[in-house]
Design goal:
The chain has about 450 residues and is of the alpha/beta class. Helices cover about 35% and strands about 20% of the residues. The chain has helices spanning about 5-15, 40-55, 65-80, 90-105, 110-115, 145-160, 210-215, 220-230, 245-255, 295-305, 320-330, 345-355, 365-375, 440-445, and strands at about 120-125, 130-135, 135-140, 170-175, 180-185, 195-200, 235-240, 260-265, 280, 310-315, 335-340, 375-385, 390-400, 405-415, 430. Strands 9-8-10-11-7-12-13-14-15 form a nine-stranded mixed beta sheet, sandwiched between helices. It has a six-stranded antiparallel beta sheet with strand order 3-2-1-6-5-4.
Length: about 450
């Protein structure tokens, strides 16, 4: 049975609304009623007729997705034409598209997923959908017919990557085929209906030129990061949720030489590396019996046996930080990862805390020495109040002074430039005038950094 057929079977079986659990406490507040779709009943009849008409062909394992899509489209037109309700041509077209999106796509989310300007989709229950466009959040008119409709779409998404979500496992992380990140929360955790968050990834990955155009970085910063990657510096990309860490990681990873063996490790596969010799590993959650979980930390340890030239970890958030630092300290120079932190200094503290989560009884000084010896540079990414995502600092990890890991800023964001008439920050990333201590190491490897790159007068 094809994946699409399985999802269609789920849709057919869940046509009737799921009854509320008996004895459920009454809510002391009600959500405002959403406008009723005037064609909801027609769509339901067309949907059911389509499933009944196609019958076993929906479950033919020899049909490709494209062939099945063609049959669904042609049959849908026949079913629409036989509908007795008086409908205009525009209404028929709209109903056909909505039913097609439901069966082959992601229902009312399909046009939002195709909109290249939408960067995030936030579903707060069946009748409340918000999007992020240009760094700002806006409500949209699209909505699901009911919670069962929303649950069908969630089941479609998570089943594609072998995940599940139900009352016993109400939280799930998944991804779309294009790498977009998905998080879903359902009852009993979600009190007002299932919730779905999709962080979209561009089908055509952003390049360094794109980030320069967005103002995320400057040409000088691109040249500096390119030199650091070619010179095998270990880099931490730090930032808050939604600040653009993964996008920057993708761009920095594009500087990796094409003749090296690269291992990527992620919770949900999102990185879009274009090099030829890339080995992609993805963590796995526990099954319904609570077994079979393969965490990031185990994948990092295993990657050391795969003869990697570089290790790229999508994000470290637990004891995997210890294994990552050890890899950086034992010959796997040029590795890159991301952490959640609000500043370069905070990222050092976060790494220290995550190493302690590994359960290894290490003195704090030993942990800090590991960090100082492993990490060469921290790239701080921020989402500013105007909605833009910028690199706001690039700091070198200099070493240890007493019990403190010392940092020095190589580039920092110029907040003093103020904002324009639209509230957008005028500032950019500027050199502090400090030349990194590892510049000589880069020169020894044949990677030269022009002195003018770090001149404070350079604009």
């Amino acid at each position: 049975m094809s994946n699409l057929a399985a999802r269609l079977d789920q849709a057919r079986l869940s046509q009737n609304p799921v009854p509320a659990a008996s004895g459920a406490p009454a809510r002391d507040h009600a959500r405002p009623a959403s406008p009723r779709d005037p064609f909801a009943a027609v769509k339901e009849r067309v949907h059911q007729s389509l499933v009944d008409t196609l019958g076993p062909r929906l479950y033919d394992p020899h049909l490709s997705e494209a062939e099945l899509s063609g049959q669904v489209r042609s049959t849908l037109q026949e079913v629409i034409e036989s509908e007795e309700t008086p409908l205009s041509h525009a209404d028929r077209t709209r109903i056909a598209q909505d039913v097609l999106n439901d069966i082959l796509g992601h229902g009312p989310l399909e046009p939002l997923l195709k909109d290249t300007e939408v960067t995030e989709i936030m579903v707060n229950g069946p009748d409340s959908i918000y999007i992020e466009r240009g760094g700002k959040i806006y409500p949209v008119t699209e909505r699901f017919s009911d919670d069962a409709h929303l649950r069908r779409i969630i089941d479609k998404i998570v089943s594609r990557v072998g995940r599940r979500v139900d009352e016993s496992s109400p939280l799930v992380d998944a991804r779309l085929p294009d790498g977009s990140r998905v998080n879903a929360v359902v009852a009993p955790i979600a009190l007002d209906g299932a919730m779905l968050t999709i962080r979209k990834f561009a089908a055509d990955p952003f390049t360094a030129r794109d980030l320069i155009g967005f103002g995320t970085m400057t040409e000088e910063v691109r040249d500096f990061l390119d030199a650091c990657v070619r010179g095998r510096r270990n880099i931490i990309i730090s930032g808050g949720t939604g600040s653009g860490k993964t996008t920057t990681l993708n761009v920095i990873s594009s500087f990796l030489p094409d003749d090296e063996r690269i291992v990527t490790i992620e919770d949900a596969a999102e990185l879009q590396l274009r090099q030829h010799h890339v080995l992609r590993l993805e963590a796995r959650p526990a099954n319904i019996e609570g077994r079979g979980a393969i965490p990031i930390r185990e994948l990092v340890r295993n990657s050391l046996r795969m003869r990697p030239d570089r290790i790229i970890v999508g994000e470290v958030r637990d004891g995997a930080a210890l294994d990552m630092l050890q890899a950086m300290n034992t010959g796997h120079d040029g590795s890159i990862t991301t952490v959640h932190a609000n500043s370069p200094r905070d990222s050092v503290a976060r790494l220290e805390t995550m190493v302690l989560m590994a359960g290894v009884d290490l003195p704090v000084r030993a942990i800090r020495e590991q960090i100082a010896g492993a990490v060469d540079m921290i790239v701080q990414q921020s989402r500013l109040k105007d909605g833009s995502r910028r690199i706001t600092a690039i700091s070198e990890v200099v070493g240890m002074e007493s019990d403190v890991v010392t940092l020095q800023d190589i580039f920092s964001f110029d907040y003093s430039a103020g904002r324009d008439e639209n509230g957008r920050f005028r500032g950019t990333l500027r050199p502090t005038g400090i030349r990194p201590k590892f510049a000589q190491d880069l020169m020894d490897q044949g990677v030269e950094l022009p002195v003018t790159l770090f001149s404070r007068g350079f604009v």
